[in-house]
ABC transporter ATP-binding protein
Amino acid sequence: MLEVEHLAVSYGPTRILEDVSFAVPEGQVVSLLGGNGSGKTTVLNALCGMVRPDGGSARIAGEDCTGRRPDEILRRGVAQVPQGREVFATMTVAENLEMGAYARRDRDGVRRDTERVLALFPRLREKARRRAGTLSGGEQQMLAVARAMMSGPRLLLMDEPSVGLAPAVLGDMVATIRALRAEGMTILLVEQNVGVAAAVADTAHVLRGGRIVHSGPAARLLGDEEVLRSYLG
Ligand SMILES: Nc1ncnc2c1ncn2[C@@H]1O[C@H](COP(=O)(O)OP(=O)(O)OP(=O)(O)O)[C@@H](O)[C@H]1O
């Protein structure tokens, strides 16, 4: 579904990403792990058209989408769940979901997806008329995921969905990602939380200083002392 090859990105004179290559096969969850400033968000920004790469390529469903504008990437079925949730706090849950579908003209499809998303997130159905700003942190994170799903994506980019969540609701986020995968969604999951990535991802890539320094099955991460100590603290 997504093939990234030799991606390079600079901010001004500073090279941030260097020769980053990985793939996200259809129906799988692939995690990009790394500490603060390792370049994870920059990968997502390059993929969704917010930053222009100065080398390499990104193919989405076989089509070269390198350097395309954000609206073109969205139209090709890529949706991002931004870091820090960023739900529209003064709008209701239902209005937030409508905003996620703003670019769509297929009203029947939107109705179907609204039902599908509310079936996945029953708590959002219960709170559909509440203002998003009054939801708990975990619920706002779910709303951010649900809103991204309303664009009808075939690839979901998630930027550190576990950040700021209480340990008690981390399990809900893990369950959410598993449910999306069970529905066949393809996900690129950017994380700092190794436990979350190990619990949900098929494959993990570790970024450090803008390069991929380790790749392997995500389930083996927690047992890999060397990788944990060297790259993930
Ligand atoms: N707009 C920008 N201009 C210049 N440098 C930037 C810009 N955005 C990010 N950087 C730098 O690029 C590097 C990678 O940042 P990036 O946000 O991709 O890392 P990250 O792994 O997502 O970190 P975090 O977990 O803190 O979000 C950092 O050194 C950061 O300071």
Notes: Residues 1-71+188-233 form a domain with the Rossmann fold fold (CATH 3.40.50.300). Residues 11, 16, 34, 36-42, 192 surround adenosine-5'-triphosphate (CB under 6 Å). The longest strand covers residues 14-24. The chain is about 35% helix and 25% strand.
